Amino acid sequence: MRNQVKWTRRGEWLELNPGKAILEAEDRDAETMIWLTNAVGMPEKLLRRLTHEKKIQWSGARLRLALFPSRPLGIDSIWQELEVLYEDDFCLVVHKPAGMTIHPDGRKGEVTLDHVVAAHFEGMGEEVAVRHIHRLDQDTSGPVLYAKNEWAQLRLDEDMRLKNIERKYIAFVEGNVRSSLSVIDLPIGKDRHHAQRRRVSPTGQSAITRVRVEEKFTGASLVHLELDTGRTHQIRVHLSHLGHPLLGDLLYGGSIGLIKRQALHGEKLCFTHPFTREYIEIDDPWPTDLNDLQNILRT
């Protein structure tokens, strides 16, 4: 249900107007806590901390919450062109290009999405810690969601845990995928013979991928995919196991004749806004290399 509470940001403070019933309550503090929890949906952990630190204050008829304190970025900023798909005081969604990792892994001189997002915050004059909510493989393109304060992080982390954040992908795969294929429900575990790979394994973790065939070409197919679970390399492992490795996915047996990276793109991200509870759909248009690949396959 959408949160109808009106709010205004003033620096580090979020200002709310709870109304007369709360203002004139016999035990205003107790009623305020109930209102923040039930009507506004404030995460309990954050409510306890701000209460303890006396960062929930009244200013006349306005209730003020210190939701936007200055925080260190937590990572070096490196400027690079960044495509912002959505942004407000709580959330940021950006396009991750293929070939870029999200978080540093210790390699010297690497530029990750987190570095570039840090530069974006810095350029906007925002002192915000860089907190990504989910990841994409290095060679997968698509939208990545960031939380810009503790409220957003707590809510979005919980939504990820409850599988309430939808990630929808498209992929070009080898072979003609049968049109009747709709769900791949096969557990995934580590490959004992290859440190980077995963494989379908009866002792692995549950993994469910939903599939819809969009278009068939000579020797290849375009499929839409949704994840019910988020296992490492899930889409790549599932489709390779069924004999349809992604084009360009050398690690899982895909041909690199037409494209040099796995032909996988996150085209849509859907989530509930952590404060307003509004349902948000973010579209991320296909990169040029996938449009080019489709045109080649159609000829």
From TrEMBL:
Pfam families named among the record's database cross-references: PseudoU_synth_2
One example of a Gene Ontology biological process annotation: enzyme-directed rRNA pseudouridine synthesis
Lineage summary: Bacteria, Bacillati, Bacillota, Bacilli, Bacillales
EC number per UniProt: 5.4.99.-
GO MF term (any one): pseudouridine synthase activity
Active site: 137
Swiss-Prot/TrEMBL keywords: Isomerase
Protein name: Pseudouridine synthase
Domain (Pseudouridine synthase RsuA/RluA-like) ranges: 92-241
Function text: Responsible for synthesis of pseudouridine from uracil.
Keyword Nucleus carried by entry: no
Family according to the record: Belongs to the pseudouridine synthase RluA family.
CDD domains hit by this protein: PseudoU_synth_RluA_like (cd02869)
Top-rank taxon, per record: Bacteria
The reaction(s) this protein catalyses: a uridine in RNA = a pseudouridine in RNA
Organism this protein belongs to: Paenibacillus glacialis
